[in-house]
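Possible regression after last week's pipeline update?

I re-ran a chain I had predicted before the update to compare outputs. Posting the input and the new output here so someone can diff against the archived version. Not blocking, just want to make sure nothing changed silently.
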Amino acid sequence: MTAQLPPNVRTAVRVLWDYHDLHHVLTPTDLGIGLGSHDLGVATCAAQLYLGGTVPFIVFTGANAPTTIERFPRGEAVHYREHALGLGVPDEVVLVESRARNTGENITFSRDLLRERGVEPRSVTLVTRPYQQRRAYATCRKLWPEVGTVQCASLPLALDDYVARIGDADRVVSMLVGDTQRIEVYADRGFAVEQPVPDEVRAAFHELVDAGYTSRLI
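New output (post-update):
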């Protein structure tokens, strides 16, 4: 594994990275939802948002995927919760949804869990990997239209710092490429609202596909 981006694809990767980060200016919302993945930084960010007063409680959602079963054998949401508690988040402000296996289920299962408890939020902060923000936002807008305000948050890491933190540049680039494809594919399938895809994003996507970053394509 390498933790540095190859120079020949750096510009294209930067285009996709900037596209998926929505750069929302965060305001207080009714709750935060941490979407499960291989990246424990999602739980760190959710904990920071709670401790900083942006969200009063957190739902962690996620079972396992092939990419997370070894790292989080008891489930993504369970490990996220434990990490957040270790950072000072009180147990009583954390809910765990441990069945979701994709972003759509993250949203719908979290929504259903909250409804079972009589909670109908008007505003939500989705806490995700940086390159998952746009897809998470589009998915939430489609599947949970009752929520008035949806904002996205991630750890504020620069691209190179994120790659170094994950420790695998190929994985990060492949995930970026896969999420870019899903923006249009999932909208076409009715899983998410449509999002604009600028020409420079399309060009960067095709450049990276041609360079072999195809492992996360559907």
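Follow-up from reviewer: compared with the archived run. DSSP finds eight helices and five strands in the chain. Marking as no regression found.
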